[in-house]
Queue: 4 jobs
Job 1
Amino acid sequence: MLALENYKRNIKYIVVLTGSFWPRALSVITQDWMAMPTLIEAVAAANSICPPNTSIERKLVMANYMIVRHKVRDFSQWKPGYDAHLPKRNEAGLTEKYLLRGAQDPNEVVLMFEAQDLSRAKSFAESADLRETMQKVGVMDKPDIFFLND
């Protein structure tokens, strides 16, 4: 029990890595490991699923997102049209992370996508194809679109 308590006191960070690069990885970084010069060495020492020769720093630098908010005439009619447009979103490098509906208005839709490339996401958002599809599936207002990165 004493060894476990010493280990708990020695924990500096718990790192959770998620996304397409790591489906789900958890590493515990202790004070001893923090003395190592790079994140790669620390994660490798923590017996992460990530091999030491992987460029973790490059992968963790920045993720891009696109958030869309709009009102639809009828969610149950809008959703099949939205689903049918998936190949175009895939071509634009967009991966749906969240599809949310308004708590007070279920026809208000907020979507969050991870974007491989913000310029491709912007081109998709400005495309005539998307405008036509949104009109066809019952989007009622001009969408609010935000491009973000962390």
Job 2
Amino acid sequence: MRLLILVLIVLLAALQYRLWVGPGSRADLHGLNLEIVAQKAELERLRTRNQELQAEVEDLRSGEAALEERARDELGMIKGGEAFIQVIERSPLPAVPAPPDTEPATPAPRHKKSSPAGPKKEPPAREERQ
């Protein structure tokens, strides 16, 4: 009798392990259910897109108005006798930042280049007579 109880407890433990942790466990089942929900949402989005494209194809096959509209919008085509006018909007100039309160930086002093003959001598200053 004790052996039967021990065997049943081991069997119960093995089944519980498989139910909670092993392959096909409840965690796996939950993950698969989430995946199914995501796949269904993607499938619905793609079905809607396919319906829109099918409607557009039927519209293009049935009449010239849709074909003409598409040629004008996407290819920039015009009918004979029409004038094409393109409006180019100027973008507003960017705002000029306000000058800082500090004094502007002065450029670094430049060094005078000397000629190969030596430094250049300036003529003596003349005295003005009145």
Job 3
Amino acid sequence: IVRNARIDVINDSTVTDLSKGLPKSAYTTSLKRFPNSESNHVLADCSSTKKVWSPCQCRLEICVGWYPCGLKYCKGKGESKDSAMSYRCGIKTCRKCHLFSYYVPQKQTCLWDE
């Protein structure tokens, strides 16, 4: 899948996430770094860029809102008055988000980052 997809610009944490379980040759041809800036300034976020033809740094947050991530334990009364016992009573759920930040040559290709 990575071989067919083209990811424009990647930060180091994204490369780490992509590389889990894959040989480096499977994804390095699909990646390229942010372009170098001659004026040593940080590329502006697309949300703060006014001109639609200007390059900027686009951001996209993707979340998995619900996934099972463990067992849920509840506490109940034990056999004696002062004892308590734990028992499995369901599935614990979690949420995970990742913020992708990447270069776009024109703001018009990142209109969701408003």
Job 4
Amino acid sequence: MAKGLEILKGEIIGKKFFGGDAPGYLDIMVRWIAYWLHFSQQAGGYNWMKNFLQVDIINNNLPPFEVMMSTYKIYRELSLSFLKVEEE
């Protein structure tokens, strides 16, 4: 996954969105990756997520931040608990 994200990062350098100034097909296809990364890497410094969320049709159709954050925390805790079991 990290390699794939590096490829995507390379494609957006110098652009507001993958397609240029407006979100396109690829922006929409990777939205969930970026949206989840928004929670796990809030301080990542990627402007793409900020630009993506400023588009009304996108921003108005995503779940509220607080709902996603609480869901993310549950998944994170479950993941960490599975890692602890595997270590034992």
